[in-house]
Design brief:
Number of strands of chain B: 5
Number of domains of chain B: 1
CATH topology of chain B: Ubiquitin-like (UB roll)
Helix content of chain B: 10-25%
Number of helices of chain C: 5
Oligomer: heterotrimer
CATH superfamily of chain B: Beta-grasp domain
Number of helices of chain B: 2
Radius of gyration of chain B: 11 Å
CATH class of chain B: Alpha Beta
Order of helices and strands of chain C: EEHEEEHHHH
Structural class of chain B: alpha+beta
Structural class of chain C: alpha+beta
Number of strands of chain C: 5
Helix content of chain C: 25-40%
CATH topology of the largest domain in chain C: Ubiquitin-like (UB roll)
Shape of chain B: globular
Distance between the termini of chain C: 50 Å
CATH superfamily of the largest domain in chain C: Beta-grasp domain
Chains: A alpha+beta, B alpha+beta, C alpha+beta
Strand order of the largest sheet of chain B: 2-1-5-3-4
Chain lengths: 746, 81, 159
């Protein structure tokens, strides 16, 4: 596939700020989310969850529950039978325990009943005979020799001998001679840093409405980031062909990576199949915390060598991530991303995935990168402090740029890191005075960005308005950006284009809305679909004029004759061609299917000022500025929104948010009162500076912008706190007790 | 011939070689040639592999051409997020 | 358990319903009356997604019983726009991109309206503290606060 090389052009629609098409429904309460749909005869599904972090399930007696008046179906792991292999098996076992409960909250049975009250009563009547097993929830304990084996059979051949069976994979990246590099350094600092597991914290709990017919055909409505992937997983788990299951994505009330997989969907389908009626299953907030997919916790050793004048000579990291009782590749992303911002002659990262008795992690915005880059950016700042160097100058001196061999292998093309650093350096924020107990921190951030499988259909309707059908749930304003790109390409006003997210029966496979891929990949496919439609429109105009197809061009929403033999005709607007379409060959449409490649990486730099109360250890964010390369901002408001939202999630991660497990292996804080995400009064304005260094792999220069924003805040806030209190913390979150302790120990 | 750089984890499977020259003109042929030379790579390729060609990451597109002077870097398949 | 008959006024319309004694107002609104604008984000009064007003007072409807609606006046997000005319808060949320996924938006709009009815000229800090009980995970609040302040200015101008 030839890459769609970027072409510089003057935009009409791109870069403007129209109101999002989904906006009216969202401000009036009309928008329908996962829990908002109903079907006649619908039952309520409820899940029984393990109170034990680790137990063998000897038996489950569901007879009393099944006999309760109003109960229409009961399912357990036995209903999911002998399933498949690989990740689908893991997803199924996570949705409903097979023979072991692997974490506090692991589903062990479920019921469908005529009311919520009956369903709750039925759960109480289910008797589970558990053999409680030793558990482990922390990384170091899980890696120790003799640790309880969480879930056997996952160790890959990459893991050397001598590790506990909970270590399932080892990933290594890097190049150059580390020993020589460290020998050249004037100062070498080695530290171990830790981050807690956090949750995406989407406000809408996971929810679905499933309806399986007796013929093995079914419909599923759910809040998801990828209904095609939901279909793929659920069809395989249910043992039916994908085409038999139609999945429709509801409006999604936040996902941030957490809704890229399934938890309750296969359970609801199985309940519906057994009950012969539609089943709605909605997670409570407690269930969301205990049994959806939080991110990993981490322990990271970082060693960096620097010369007196601030040149990094060698860099090394070992990353250990736990992501619950099933294997995952998040630590691989961490090992790849850790040093991405730096141009290094010698670098090596090694990552280990560790199993624990915690819920199966899911992706969370730039998965694996925030903690890795937190560790690196903390140590870089400490070196700057030790050597008396300006942290921004040092980053500029070592910054990755076009032609840099990245720490994960490939050589960078056009990237925006230097531009964002220079923008930060030139910004008044960087020189603003600070008061007592105040400090300033900065950090770089990075995310790879994905492309992937994409299918888009665009139809020119009979009146010349345009419908775009795409298959990626809109989690960040993508219906707006997709409609804008279609309008731009066709030369018609934004208001004449409607983009909708279609169900799985309407288009070819679309990958999950992940990796900041949608505006890039779906945008690319939309532009291609629009170009196909334009070609057809020109052909129809040629027919109407009786001239050669090649003698027609498209400009500002009109066909125009062009070239020496074209003749002289008034431009034909899209609506006139559309109205005549029955006479010129039928409906006019364009479509495009592609596995989009060429996603451009995105860098950002955040500046953060804090004030730490020395009496209470409370940290207040005083000022926050984000600098990020967007390639090309299709809708600047929504690009800013992505950057601001990501930054605030990162601030929460830095200061408050953490999964706290007790010695009993149970989650201690499964609610928003005790798992405290940032609220409006915690924050100042979040200022944004969008840079536009075009991605050469997209016709408009687009880069994904959704994820990079969550990466820098961890170290930016930590560096600011260190600056304010004169001592450094090596662990997140920096909750008030930890800061007080650090101040006292100085 | 095109020089293919392997990521660190794979080097244990290629007798420590970090860079291997193969005869190949596209993504798929690179994988086939590497697998023939080092059968131990097969399980990892089965798990999934991306390829950066001249700095652009291709996730799966087997037909992507590779020129003799291309920078070719193998990377693990990236999903999730 | 026998159900209780409740007569109430919702968004200006006299409404009757039957509910169990332990059913929340949120469940009644959503499941019995099909007013799904109010959302259940937590069920424990921590997130504000279910905010409605009860006799003019801002409440988390997940912490109010359905039977407490007897004889009361309730307003929900569905009652904010008058006919086709959006409330200035709704319009400013659209114009200033103050929503993303939108699931917290109904609760925030209801809460912000309750604020502006008490205090037509709030400071930024007052808006931030008033809305501290309404969680938003998408926006970082920046554009929400700006939209509320802009709507307040509009409303003052119109008054």
């Amino acid at each position: 596939m030839a890459l769609d090389e970027y072409e510089k052009r003057d935009f009409q629609v791109i870069g403007s700020r129209p109101v999002r098409p989904d906006g009216i429904d969202k401000v009036t309460g009309r928008a329908l989310y996962g829990a908002d749909a109903v079907l006649p005869g619908m039952l309520v599904g409820k899940v029984l969850r393990s109170p034990h972090p680790h137990a063998r399930i000897r038996s489950i007696d569901t007879r009393a529950a099944a006999a309760l008046n109003g109960v229409r179906a009961v399912v357990t792991g036995a209903d999911f039978g002998e399933i498949r292999k690989g990740e689908t098996r893991n997803v199924a076992e996570n949705a409903m325990a097979f023979d072991h409960a692997l974490y506090d909250g692991h589903a062990v049975a479920a019921v469908a009943a005529t009311s919520e009250a009956v369903a709750r009563e039925a759960l109480k009547l289910i008797e589970v005979d558990y053999e409680v097993l030793p558990h482990v929830t922390e990384i170091a304990a899980a890696m120790a020799p003799g640790a309880p084996v969480v879930h056997a059979g996952f160790v890959e051949d990459s893991v050397p001998d001598g590790f506990s069976e909970n270590v399932t994979a080892r990933h290594e990246f890097g190049h150059g001679d580390l020993e020589a590099g460290f020998a050249r350094a004037d100062k070498v600092i080695a530290r171990t840093l830790k981050t807690a597991a956090t949750h995406q914290g989407y406000i809408e709990p996971n929810a679905c409405l499933a309806s399986m017919g007796p013929d093995g055909r079914g419909d599923l409505w759910c809040c998801t980031q990828g209904h095609y992937f939901v279909r793929q997983l659920c069809a395989e788990i249910m043992g039916i062909e994908e085409s038999r299951l139609r999945v429709t994505a509801s409006e999604i009330g936040g996902g941030f990576g957490g809704k890229t997989t399934v938890f309750v969907e296969p359970v609801a389908l199985m309940l519906s199949k057994k009950a012969g009626a539609p089943v709605k299953l909605v997670m409570s907030r407690n269930e969301v915390f205990r049994a959806s997919g939080p991110t990993v916790s981490s322990e990271i050793d970082v060693k960096i060598g620097m010369t007196r004048d601030g040149r990094i000579t060698a860099a090394e990291a070992e990353l250990r991530y736990q992501g619950g009782a099933f294997p995952n590749i998040t630590v691989m992303f961490g090992a790849m991303a850790a040093f991405a911002a730096y141009d290094l002659g010698a670098v090596r990262t090694v990552g280990y995935n560790v199993l624990t008795n915690r819920p199966k992690q899911a992706a969370y915005r730039a998965p694996g990168a925030p903690m890795a880059i937190y560790a690196v950016e903390s140590v870089v700042n400490e070196l700057c402090e030790e050597l008396g160097l300006d942290p921004l100058e040092v980053r500029l001196k070592n910054a990755a740029r076009k032609g840099t061999k990245s720490s994960y292998g490939p050589t960078f093309n056009d990237i925006g890191l230097v531009a964002t650093l220079e923008a930060a350096q030139a910004h008044p924020h960087y020189r603003a005075p600070l008061g007592p107990n105040q400090g300033r921190g900065l950090s770089c951030g990075f995310w790879f960005n994905f492309g992937g499988n994409t299918s888009v259909s665009l139809s020119v309707d009979m009146d010349g308005s345009v419908s775009v059908t795409e298959g990626n749930p809109d989690i960040g304003g993508s219906r707006a950006s997709i409609a804008m790109m279609a309008a731009e390409e066709l030369g018609i006003p934004f208001e004449r284009v409607r983009a909708i997210v279609a169900d799985t029966a309407s288009l070819g496979h679309n990958d999950v809305t992940d990796g900041s891929r949608v505006t890039f990949a779906v945008g690319l496919a939309t532009i291609k679909a629009a170009r196909a439609a334009k070609k057809e429109l020109c052909k129809r105009a040629a027919m109407m004029w009786g001239i050669d197809e090649e003698a027609v061009t498209w400009e500002n929403g009109c066909a125009k004759p062009s070239g020496p033999n074209a003749g002289s005709f008034e431009p034909l607007p899209i609506e006139k061609i559309a109205r005549k379409s029955p006479r010129t060959g039928g409906p006019i449409a364009g479509h495009h299917e592609v596995n989009a490649e060429g996603a451009g990486v995105s860098f950002g730099v955040h500046l953060c000022d804090v004030e730490v109360d020395p009496e209470t250890g409370h940290t207040k964010i005083l000022r926050y500025t984000i600098f990020q390369d967007a390639g090309k901002a299709i809708h600047p408001d929504y690009v800013e929104g992505q950057m601001q939202g990501g930054a605030v999630q990162g601030i929460g991660w830095a200061l408050n948010e953490e999964y706290i497990y007790g010695k009993d292996g149970r989650l201690q804080n499964p609610g928003f009162l005790d798992y405290r995400i940032p609220v409006a009064s915690d924050l100042p304005d979040i200022d944004t500076v969008i840079l536009e260094i075009p991605n050469p792999g997209h016709p408009y220069g687009v880069r994904g912008v959704g994820e990079t924003g969550i990466v820098p805040p961890l170290a930016a806030v930590s560096n600011a706190v260190s600056h304010a209190i004169g001592t450094r913390l090596y662990e997140l979150p920096m909750s008030p007790p930890k800061i007080l302790k650090a101040i006292r120990e100085g | 011939m095109v020089a293919v750089t392997l990521w660190g984890s794979l080097r244990a499977l290629t007798d420590g070689q970090a860079e291997i020259e193969v005869e190949a003109s596209n993504f798929k042929e690179v994988l086939t040639a590497l697998e023939q030379r080092y059968p131990a790579l097969a399980p990892q390729f089965e798990r999934g592999v991306s390829m950066a060609i001249d700095g652009v990451i291709y996730k799966e597109s087997w037909a992507t051409p590779v020129r003799p002077d291309s920078e070719v870097v193998l990377m693990p398949l990236m999903v999730g997020g | 358990m026998s159900k209780t008959h409740v007569t109430t006024t919702i968004n200006g319309t006299r409404t009757e319903f039957l509910c169990e004694a332990n059913e929340t107002l949120l469940t009644v609104l959503r499941d019995r009356l099909h007013l799904t604008g109010a959302k259940e984000g937590c069920g424990s009064g921590d997130c504000g997604a279910c905010s409605v007003t009860l006799n003019g007072r801002l409440v988390a409807s997940c912490l109010v019983l359905g039977v407490e609606a007897e004889g009361a006046e309730i307003t929900t997000v569905e009652g904010m726009a008058e006919g086709g005319e959006l409330h200035p808060l709704q319009q400013k949320f659209l114009d200033l991109a103050a929503l993303q996924c939108g699931v917290c938006t109904p609760g925030i709009l209801v809460a912000a309206k309750a604020l502006l009815e008490k205090n037509p000229d709030p400071s930024e800090q007052e808006v931030r503290y008033w809305l501290a009980g309404n969680l938003c995970r998408c926006t970082g609040y920046d554009k929400i606060i700006k939209a509320v302040l802009a709507a307040a200015a509009d409303l003052r101008g119109a008054a």
